[in-house]
Amino acid sequence: MAKKRRPKSIVKSKPKMTARPQAVFPDYYPKFRCIGSECEDSCCIAGWKIPIDRVTWLRYQACQHETLAPLLRSHVILGKENSPQSEQTYAYIKMQADLRCPFLQPDMLCMIQKELGSEALSDTCATYPRFHNLFGAQHEYSLGISCPEAARQVLLHPEPIGLIMAAPDADLGARDFINFRVPQIGISDPDQISIMNDLRSLMLYILQFRELTLGARMMLLGNLLDEVDRVISDPGFKNIAEIFPVLSSFTTLFAEPSFIETQFEQIPIDLPRKLLAITAFLAEFLHHADPRFAECLNAGVNGLVGNEASRLGVGADLLARYHNAYDSYYLPYFRDKGYILENYLVNDVFSQLFPFIHGSFLDLYRKMVFNLSIIQVFMVGMAGHYQGLTDMRVVQLIQSFARRTAHDSSYLGKLTEAVASKEAPSFAEVMWMLKER
Questions:
Q1: pLDDT in tens, 248-263
Q2: 181-182 and 130-135 as β-strands: parallel, antiparallel, unpaired?
Q3: How do the domains of the chain map onto residue ranges?
């Protein structure tokens, strides 16, 4: 029998030269640099509602610049009385009709930064696509893949992602701006925070355990979350240390990956149902997609159903197209590039503090499974359309999908309706979506 292995720490400390505070970030994080006017999908034309913190708003009100001051007063709007207002969301930038930021110059650079300096940017504009999170007292930095350059750094990373402990990011440290924090309420004991971090380390280890297929890893992750959820949902639950037996039992599973893979193979395959669930809301995506995302969607549709989008449905022709595209073009690319989807999931877990915020474990796991399934299906369609895949096209799909869905998760409700059982909701009821064929 193979020797049993336990997950190793994924945090690699650099040699300590001073007693300065430390922060944790993925090894790709320091490589990111905004490419400004060269960006193929600028965040300044995304049409997002950009919050303006109170300190920045007051600075804008005091601006006397001849050209900039009138624009600041007409396009930086206080929040409505019935909208939640805080120090971080005190006002917002009113976008133009074409969804462009009113401060974006013809050279695709920011007028505020040019005239007043980067220190005058709002917290949101100054930090995107970087995330600054707090896990207990630990500062963490990561990247959001809705930015093309960040997506390249995250996704095109062949080696398993490692976490580095080093000096804090000076730019982020200068701003009192936190994206997410754990715990939000309830737990303040450092020992309990440490145990929650043990759970997260195990999740990251599972997702990067390359002796298993990605689907089997996601199944194992769902099983882990299910078991932990049972413990913490029990009426007698008192302390997070009660999940220790669950964590210990899962660390023994890595000795026999073939056993886990066999369990995954036993999950029923229902490809017609999967394709129907995913394509059911495709029309809505096509009607509200920006050109970069629409290019991917149209290629995906054409690769699966031909040029007539109205033919969307699940028949023998669609299944045949899917299988042909999968075997001939999708699989040959991902045999050597499986780390791309792995990195997508690992980054999501780390940057979003998964699964400790934004909802229940089950809801968050569903979201992860659905997003992965959507990306995979449309990647197969794109592969069929282009008769192959390239790094550029794969990054474009994942990045533009992340941008399209970052501020709109309504499609998840439709998918949940399509796949939910009539019984009590469970983790197992969505695992069949992980089967690619």
A1: 999 999 999 999 999 9
A2: parallel
A3: 36-126, 190-264, 268-434
